[in-house]
Amino acid sequence: MPLFDVYPLYNVTPVSANGIHVYDENNTEYLDLYGGHAVISIGHAHPKYVEAITNQVSALGFYSNAIQNPLQVELADKLEALSGCDGYNLFLCNSGAEANENALKVASFKTDKSRVVAFKNGFHGRTSAAVAATDNPNIIAPINAQQKVTILEFNDIEGVKTELEKGDVCAVIVEFIQGVGGLDQATAEFYEQVDALCKANNTFFIADEVQSGYGRSGKFFAFQHYNVTPDVISIAKGMGNGFPIGGILIHPSIEAKYGMLGTTFGGNHLACAAGLAVLNTIEDENLIDNVNNVSEYFNSIAKTIPQIKNIKGRGLMLGLEFDFEVGDLRKKLIYDHHIFTGGASNKKLLRILPPLTIAKEHVDQFFKALKKELEAVEV
Length: 379
What we know:
This is Aminotransferase class III-fold pyridoxal phosphate-dependent enzyme. By secondary structure, the chain is an alpha/beta fold.
């Protein structure tokens, strides 16, 4: 049976990985500066992570949410302590798309409204309402397009005000650092005014932290760089270091009701073991401090390279913008230098999303390769 052909693939076949490196069937070593779409947070095959999953699956891998699962409580408590989101409640699911779907569902339930405001170049997932709120018509099927969504420009505070005052918007959803869209950020004033407008108009403010959360921005969540209080925070990618897990943090003012949300696999024992291993490693190895230290070093070098026209993002969620499309450059980096990087809807942007364990020598290796390729382009 052939695979449904929806992914353009690089001719690389990873068979193992360790730390910040991936190895193919020929044992060729690749430097992973993309982390599988920012999923690998604490490094490939981290020993504490492997031990936690191994021990859990040998004891109890899965049972449904119809029974007590103390691991969920332990995960929620640890997440509250490390994130600083005091009093929020946790609902666990399996992916970022599910997280945003449930965030929007809670908002609609609680406001009794159905329209969503989202932003240009935003990406929130591929499920029903999440994909409708994504600014990419190519992945929105007619069944998704039935959702009522208004897409605005970043920093258009008058547009947000106008839409919210119409009285039918259940939620404003925002990536504080856009991922697929190209690492764009709005101003602090804009985010803070949107937060205030939401609170004045019975509208939920949803922080999509699926990619930017778990320390990647240099704080536990990217919204914490601003003076805002989201009603719901969606999480996934780096949460499980490769194991499928997602969730939403729900403000304590929002009351739960039996049956409001549900999932078969969400918050299963194995997923919680993976999630706890990630949080414990972030804490034990001071990985958020490492994010900030390595990010500063990365930026200091990037600023010296004249071909780089713009450095975007925060922490280890970075983009290097050039005056040419980077598709060929990415191929050169992967095939000639054995370095994984990422692309974006902005075709001139090279995305850097490494494991949070990255060291300065890995940054040096990347820039040595990049400079060589940029020099070749000029010649």
